[in-house]
Amino acid sequence: MGMMIKKINKRAVSPVVATVLLIGMVVVIALIVFLWFRGFVGGACEKFERNCELTCDEVEFQTSYSGGTLYMLNLGNVPIYSIKIKLSGGGSHETKDIRDLSGDWPLYGLGIGKSLSTPVDSSGFTEMTVIPVLLGNSNDGQESFICEDIYGFKMDI
Amino acid sequence: MDKKAVSIMIGYVLLVTIAIIMGGLVYGWLKGYVAKPLIECPEETSLAIKKVSCLNNGNGLDLNLTLTNNGLFNIGGYFVKVTNSSDQELATIDISEDLREDLGGGKKAGGMISFTGGGFDNNFETGQSITNIFNITSTKQINSIEIIPIRFQEENNRKKLVTCSSSKIREEVIC
């Protein structure tokens, strides 16, 4: 009997404690990295707790143009912070913010049910598209969001 | 062969961590795309112009407007706009501030006429009629009038103003 049994006495963490520690570490690391990454990328624009792009679909307004005057009525339940006027015709086009074209646009935009009539120079152009701009919230604070052209209203002038 | 590798435990930790982070990021991004739709005015909400006329009251010109709730829902108020030119397609002149509140029938409320007296209730009941008188001396001429009813509807335990754009009515009136 020459075998010598060497008893190894190693101390170790209990499996239950190890599992708890493992899950805890995972959650903490995930949270730290998530918060860091979210701050790095920046948040999407939100309005009424939904993506601004979705809110553009809810914007409802009527507009007309005659005698050099733009008439607009906000029929929907979404305030319109600003509008982009896209003028096209004769092979050229330009897009301008209403605040650059007119001093009549309300400071905080066209509220629900509000209306506006203001002179807009469209000489040299044959088509006008009115595109709504919303004021949303993001991680960086309030920011304006220009809706896509499909949410605009096109009219011959 | 003595190949170095990451411990199995560390591998598990990294795997689960990455999965949770990606799940969180996707959730945060998708959250904005699956929100419930905005509250809308019920389609059966309706106002009708029972009578509209212009009268000279001795001090100026008054527009008498009688409205009837011919819909299925109570109404909280309305927006009122007029045109002063036959060429104008869209009514954008707001005459709500010209309401003669002393003659009863409604209250001015920040660009609209309210039937609630300052609260947020839909007090104009179905079947009822109401007459509002506006002093339109400064407007001088009216060619048409447009009415858009509004309701106060509850969302997240808060009353919110909702326009009933599909119930907009327009009538020609010469003043």
User: SS-based structural class of chain A?
Assistant: alpha+beta
Unreliable stretches of chain A (pLDDT < 50, length at least 5) are none
Mean pLDDT of chain A: 86
Percent helix of chain A, as a range, is: 10-25%
Number of helices of chain A: 3
Taken in chain order, the helices and strands of chain A follow as HEEHEEEEHEEEE
Low-confidence stretches of chain B: none
Oligomeric description of these chains: heterodimer
Structural class of chain B: mainly beta
Q: Rounded to an integer, what's the Rg of chain B over CA atoms?
A: 27 Å
The largest sheet of chain B is:
7 strands, antiparallel
Beta-strand level of the residues of chain A, as a percent range? 35-45%
Order of helices and strands of chain B: HEEEEEEEEEE
Give the radius of gyration of chain A: 30 Å
User: What spatial form of chain A do the alpha-carbon principal axes imply?
Assistant: rod-shaped
The number of distinct helices of chain B, counting runs of at least 4 residues, comes to 1
Mean pLDDT of chain B: 87
What would you note in describing this structure?
The complex is a heterodimer of chains A (157) and B (175). Chain A is of the alpha+beta class and 157 residues long. Helix content of chain A is 23%, strand content 36%. Chain A has 3 helices and 10 strands, in the order αββαββββαββββ. Chain A has helices at 15-41, 52-56, 98-101; strands at 46-47, 50-51, 61-66, 69-74, 82-89, 92-97, 115-119, 127-138, 141-146, 153-156. In chain A, strands 5, 6, 8, 9 and 10 form a 5-stranded antiparallel β-sheet that branches. A 3-stranded antiparallel β-sheet of chain A has the order 3-4-7, with no helix packed on it. Chain A has a two-stranded antiparallel sheet with strand order 1-2. Chain A is rod-shaped. The relative contact order of chain A is 0.19. The mean pLDDT of chain A is 86. Chain B has 175 residues and is mainly β. Chain B is 14% helix and 35% strand. Chain B has 1 helix and 10 strands, in the order αββββββββββ. In chain B, strand 5 (107-108) and strand 6 form a beta hairpin. Chain B starts with 7 loop residues before the first helix and ends with a strand. The mean pLDDT of chain B is 87. At the A-B interface, helix 1, strand 2, strand 3, strand 4 and strand 7 of A face helix 1, strand 4 and strand 9 of B.
